[in-house]
Amino acid sequence: MCQVLDEFIIYNCFIIRVKQLIKDRVKLKMNFEPVNTKKRYYDFNTYLRTVFGCRVQKITLDAGLSCPNRDGKISRKGCIYCNARGSGTGAYAKGLSITKQMVDGKKRLSRRYKARKFLAYFQSFTNTYAPVDKLKGLYEEALAIDDVVGLSIGTRPDCVDEPILNLLQEYAKYYHVWIEYGLQSIHDATLALINRGHDFQCFQKAVDATKNRGIKICAHVILGLPDEKRSHMLETAKAVAKMEIDGIKIHLLYVVKGTELEKLYRQGRYKCLEQEEYVDLVCDFLELIPQDMVIQRLTGDPHPKELVAPEWSLQKSETLTLIKNTLERRDSWQGMKVKLEIRNL
Ligand code: SF4
Where do the domains of the chain lie, and which CATH numbers do they carry? Predict the structure, then answer.
């Protein structure tokens, strides 16, 4: 009798365990399927279309602001890959107001993409590096334009404080607001080498100060930084995956004229990534970050007249196609290697 009872208990435990395993597998499968079967990653256009129900485009703005890593507050040299334009359009230097840049951008992007709504993207230099009243004037000039549904503010993690975050938090009650923090790498030795002027902890503090305010956070990272191996870059992916970040821009490090990086490159002390290497790294990176992290960019966009190397970086659509093909060949997708416990998916 006792043996029968034991066998009955063992059998039931086995059945319960099998049921649990099946449940876990289903849960795992549900969380690990491609988010977008066409692209295999959660691209920004899809995200914006889901939120707004139409094509939304960012209008790139140059507000004539500076950067503490250029004006002497931190350094006068800037990041080693940044030239005097500070990734800017140069529109401010041409005397174009924010309103004029917005109106021109709207016309251009409505024609080209049939966009119906717009985000004002303050891109050039550091767009929180000014007194809060001045920033308020600039942001509100952009928000006053018809069909503008929000802001995207590109900045450094050491250039936000409570009044600025309070201002953005207020906008976030009525608009779609992103803040884009340049991280580039989680490795302090790399950040020192590229003269970022801040460390990883500074980025973590900025993210902590920004979260729970309704402001969406986007991190910029760069692949191919000097002295970084594949393992360094994937450590950055894993660290970012664990943080409360809503979006990411993955850039290729390319060499532009008039930068410290150009000197290193010409001296043979910096070697650019090959296209194939970059594509593989991007796919590895995507596999490690959560599926709900919006991918705002997958490569760089060099100015052809300013580019020194690598030449292949001008072939943006070819690189994007190679990324898509590589994910398909691997049969992998964004988040494929994220463990469930990383973000409690
Ligand atoms: S923080 Fe941005 S604008 Fe400033 S030096 Fe670096 S790349 Fe250039």
Answer: 35-343 (3.80.30.30)
